């Protein structure tokens, strides 16, 4: 097929909607991260479905003008959430470029991607890479290559290859996606829409918009609860009394960024569409009433959604695993490290913030596995972990008695996914017994500990969870602690997890000391981002 008629474009769009609907649950599962702000799969589906409704309402002869206007206006009026709004602007730019075309060629479609990218980026005051914006940008940057396709079969094959790369790249561009171990939901949604277009071109012409989702939710989503700065997701559609000038548009944009974030704002055919996270949705409504009449208002309490998710948890689907791992982590940085080493579920907690038995149980129950290993990573959490182990009936639960995260890292380095659980437990326990760990913190008050007088602000160095030395001089405290490790010259690697309070001077002192006195140790440094302990160290 070398050209798309108006009728074929209409059916491509509807097939794209059907394909998105099939994968809605998968997209929603991805959108668990970072906070529930509606659901990306549901929001994108609502946007596309409204476009289909407008397409189905076309009367008399189907023309390209009617189809483009239906897609453009339908997606605008149906847009929900940040992802839906941006998706509507992608189609707005796409339709605007094609407005004078009677039949769409491959080159027309390719250059429409470029227009779609420009309009979508223009709608977002502070575009964020690693999102659906990145996906449409990747397509816009390959216009020449796409234009060379011989027909629409080849065109969409190339389109899907480009989009797949964009989706796979999103975690590299957005730290929170990387920490969570997921790709961007909006970018993946756009991939499925274009896949639907391709399916129609290939001959799958039956369309069912009542289709139920068939894709399993993605596996291994790490959800890290976080405080919400802004509580209400606020969306408005307003018909302006008069055409807004550039000064008025800029004033509204600046106002939205003063009172919130995640701002999307644009004006299309005298209709204002906005999305903002704010603590004062009433102020937004009042401001916009000054320039027009409300057509649609949607306000969601994200705090309520957020707390509901934490309470109910995430249920892992997909093939049942032989062995799975739950690890307690005090920070995002350490969570990332544990995830890279094979942890399937992360429970946030640690020193001063011990998770409850219920927290750990939710994580264990969410895993679809025959055997689950719990790493409590703190002596105060081991009992809670054991209680969970004794209360689970549908899987075997083992507690590895790790008293700090360094022991957990040492154990997971030796992780063998398909090993027999009894053997794997021995491997873990052996790793814990062999590693030397140091934990460096500072005294917050004068005190006595194990008969020792501790002064406020002294460095405290724990070796294998036992206080070995304390001093106001950081270098001296380290030297004393290292001197008490008997076989240090025989070890090979020292891994340092840097906390939020670690200073460049302290880091330099530690690394210089190791290089000068223990050249046998290869230094590996990672951003642990933990609080209270500027340095967590393991020596193997």
TrEMBL record:
A UniProt-annotated Pfam family: FakA-like_M
Gene3D superfamilies: 1.25.40.340
GO biological process: glycerol metabolic process
A GO term, aspect molecular function: glycerone kinase activity
Chain ranges of the DhaL domain: 7-199
PANTHER family membership: DEGV DOMAIN-CONTAINING PROTEIN DR_1986-RELATED, PHOSPHATASE PROTEIN
NCBIfam families reported in the protein's UniProt record: YloV
Name of the protein this chain belongs to: DhaL domain-containing protein
Organism of provenance: Thermosipho atlanticus DSM 15807
Lineage: Bacteria, Thermotogati, Thermotogota, Thermotogae, Thermotogales
């Amino acid at each position: 097929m070398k050209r798309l008629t108006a009728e074929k474009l209409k059916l491509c769009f509807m097939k794209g909607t059907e394909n998105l609907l099939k994968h809605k649950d998968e997209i929603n599962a991805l959108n668990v991260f970072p906070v529930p702000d509606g659901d990306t799969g549901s929001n994108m589906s609502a946007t596309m479905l409204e476009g289909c409704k407008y397409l189905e309402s076309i009367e008399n002869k189907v023309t390209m003008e009617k189809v483009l206007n239906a897609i453009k206006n339908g997606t605008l009026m149906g847009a929900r959430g940040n992802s839906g709004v941006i998706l509507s602007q992608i189609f707005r730019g796409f339709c605007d470029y094609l407005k004078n075309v009677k039949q769409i060629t491959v080159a027309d479609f390719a250059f429409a991607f470029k227009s779609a990218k420009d309009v979508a980026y223009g709608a977002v005051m502070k575009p964020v890479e690693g999102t659906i914006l990145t996906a449409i940008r990747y397509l816009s940057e390959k216009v020449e290559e796409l234009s060379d396709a011989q027909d629409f079969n080849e065109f969409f094959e190339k389109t899907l290859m480009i989009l797949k790369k964009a989706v796979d790249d999103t975690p590299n561009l957005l730290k929170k996606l990387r920490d969570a171990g997921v790709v961007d939901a909006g970018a993946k949604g756009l991939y499925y829409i274009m896949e639907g277009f391709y399916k129609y071109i290939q001959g799958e012409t039956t369309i069912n918009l009542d289709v139920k989702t068939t894709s399993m939710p993605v596996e291994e989503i790490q959800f890290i609860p976080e405080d919400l700065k802004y509580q209400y997701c606020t969306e408005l559609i307003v018909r302006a009394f008069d055409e807004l000038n550039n000064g008025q548009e800029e004033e509204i944009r600046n106002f939205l960024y003063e009172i919130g974030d995640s701002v999307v704002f644009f004006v299309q055919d005298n209709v204002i569409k906005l999305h903002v996270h704010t603590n004062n949705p009433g102020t937004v409504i009042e401001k916009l009433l000054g320039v027009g009449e409300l057509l649609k208002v949607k306000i969601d309490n994200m705090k309520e959604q957020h707390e509901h998710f934490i309470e109910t948890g995430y249920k892992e689907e997909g093939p049942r695993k032989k062995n799975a791992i739950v690890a307690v982590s005090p920070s995002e940085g350490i969570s990332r490290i544990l995830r890279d080493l094979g942890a399937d579920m992360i429970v946030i907690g640690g020193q001063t913030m011990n998770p409850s038995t219920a927290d750990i149980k939710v994580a264990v129950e969410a895993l679809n596995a025959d055997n689950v290993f719990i790493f409590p990573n703190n002596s105060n959490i081991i009992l809670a972990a054991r209680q969970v182990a004794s209360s689970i009936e549908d899987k075997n639960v083992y507690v590895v008695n790790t008293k700090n995260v360094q022991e957990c890292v040492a154990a997971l380095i030796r992780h063998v996914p398909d090993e027999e659980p009894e053997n794997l437990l021995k491997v873990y326990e052996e790793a814990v017994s062999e590693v030397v760990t140091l934990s460096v913190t500072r005294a917050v008050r004068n005190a006595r500990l194990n008969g020792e007088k501790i002064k406020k602000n002294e460095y405290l160095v724990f070796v294998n969870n036992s206080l070995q030395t304390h001093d106001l001089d950081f270098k001296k405290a380290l030297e004393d602690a290292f001197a008490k490790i008997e076989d240090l010259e025989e070890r090979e690697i020292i891994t340092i997890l840097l906390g939020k309070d670690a200073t460049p001077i302290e880091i330099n002192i530690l690394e210089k000391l190791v290089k000068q006195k223990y050249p046998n140790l290869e230094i590996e440094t990672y951003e642990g981002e933990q609080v209270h302990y500027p340095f967590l160290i393991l020596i193997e």
